[in-house]
Amino acid sequence: MYKLRLSAGVLAFSVLLPTAATPRPAHASCGAAFCSVNTQVETQGVWTEPGLRLNLRYEYIDQEQLRHGADKIEPGGVPGTHDELRTINRNLQVGMAYAFNPSWAVLMQLPVVQRDHRHVHNNAPPEYETWNFTSLGDFRLSGSYQTALSRDDIIGFQFGLKLPTGKFNEANELGLRAERSLQPGSGTTDALFGVYSHHRLAGATTTLFVQGLWQQPLNERDDYRPGQQVTLDVGLRYALTRNLDAQLQLNLLWKDRDRGLNAEPDDSGGHSVFLSPGASYALSDTVQLYGFVQLPLYQYVNGSQLTADWLAVAGIRWRL
Prior knowledge:
The structure is a single chain. The protein has 320 residues and is an all-beta fold. It has a single domain (41-319), classed as Porin, CATH 2.40.160. It is built from one helix and 15 strands. The chain has one helix at residues 41-44, and strands at 51-63, 65-69, 71-72, 82-99, 104-121, 127-136, 139-148, 153-163, 190-200, 206-217, 229-239, 244-255, 270-282, 287-307, 311-319. It has a twelve-stranded antiparallel β-barrel with strand order 1-4-5-7-8-9-10-11-12-13-14-15. The longest helix is centred in the first third of the chain and has 4 residues, at 41-44.
């Protein structure tokens, strides 16, 4: 939003990775997902003036690869069990940010989740079950404060809440509820805290940003508590022309196990590292298009879970 900058050594962030759980390949996690590419204007410093910013972002995530630990596996087909086959996530996120002055801003995000899921009960003959729903997800409200460390370096902080606005009782045409990890909402209120920093490199054609964000559920809802998660993003933006920027991000994600009677702790949580090349193009001084492809460099899941071999993000930003 306003120019954000990072001095060398400003942000040090470490994540402790959990040990693997006892595998349960016959009962894998459905694999609902959001893409971890960072497109926040306050983090990247796309615009510098106070005022209102809008961000419309679309994500496509096709989770068709079953993974056990770090290894790709095939469905077990064991009689009396069921295997997860595929989850397609199409997420539309509507974001708004308002900067009151160069230091303070408020940010809001509301996702619309469209999700298709299929699994099979290994009976004779096999029985397939599907879910297909479109629904609002959980609303995020946060504030940010930033301060200049030097002419080229700014550090900022985010703090807020994820509110339980999304449904967690979606069912299919047979009246069977989807697993809690597949639902558009978690049913819980989560605390959000982040640190970000932005640095203008020599020549002013390249900028570097770093952001760490911690999300911690504050309660349990209907015998389900999602695992806390930590993300760390490091990104470079290079100006190819006056209007066209090339971008490259490294995205790290760690998620703890879900808890509760309606959770699957043995088949939830894990850690991943993604490389996300992309580009942005300024249609005008107030409108910008962007797009990314996210490629997993390393994925580790507890137990067995559905994962994606690639993810895509595209969006448009307005400055009002």
